[in-house]
């Protein structure tokens, strides 16, 4: 598989990640990951950070596509990750959700933590729930882009970076992402030809180690474009 490179300089590699590719292995996996492909092309990145993550600055889920940053040296990795930790990075996603949202825009602010009984999932916790003091605050802003027959296309901006945050928050609103097998409803409808969750990281703005603030954009992949066209 060829890497789709949106931008690169001495410090950073900006990739357009395809859906269906794990970014880096968290458990034992035989399948090829994005970081395997990166190291194949840029062997020097194997000396950045720690395995298995190496220079990966932030993550996207396996079935989420879009803009992803990889640092080419340790100094750049620390510089870029600091901005993510301090919520100074502007990120925007497009998601197709089930049904129509009550409000055309809004903010979801909750606690998020691992779901009891299922280590793969995250869930929203109320402040009054047991063990809620160990959960982390998550903030997601959203606005409706277009209402379709049984679905809504929304632009989503996570203001914090919790695992599965967008997927958890939209499901919490009662409007899970179309094609999301982990957080979706049982027997939920699918647009024809869509074989994954409709979530795409289309925009990212960050200050680079070399000085300038830069914006990176990724076009909606053809499978997601076709799903909308069919609706």
- In CATH terms, the superfamily of the domain at 5-89 and 204-220 is Pseudouridine synthase
CATH topology name of the domain at 5-89 and 204-220: Pseudouridine synthase
Task: Report the CATH architecture of the domain at 5-89 and 204-220.
Answer: 2-Layer Sandwich
Average residue pLDDT: 94
The ordered H/E elements are EEHEHEEEEEHEEH
Written description of the protein model:
- With 231 residues, the protein is an alpha+beta fold.
- The protein has a domain at 5-89 and 204-220: Pseudouridine synthase, CATH 3.30.2350.10.
- The protein is 16% helix and 32% strand.
- The chain contains 4 helices and 10 strands; from the N terminus they run ββαβαβββββαββα.
- It has helices spanning 34-41, 74-85, 165-172, 222-230; strands at 5-8, 12-17, 65-71, 90-98, 105-114, 122-125, 136-147, 151-158, 199-207, 213-217.
- Strands 1, 2, 3, 4, 5, 6, 7, 8, 9 and 10 form a 10-stranded mixed β-sheet that branches.
- A hairpin with a 3-residue loop joins strand 7 (136-147) and strand 8 (151-158).
- The longest helix is centred in the middle third of the chain and has 12 residues, at 74-85.
- The radius of gyration is 18 Å and the shape is globular.
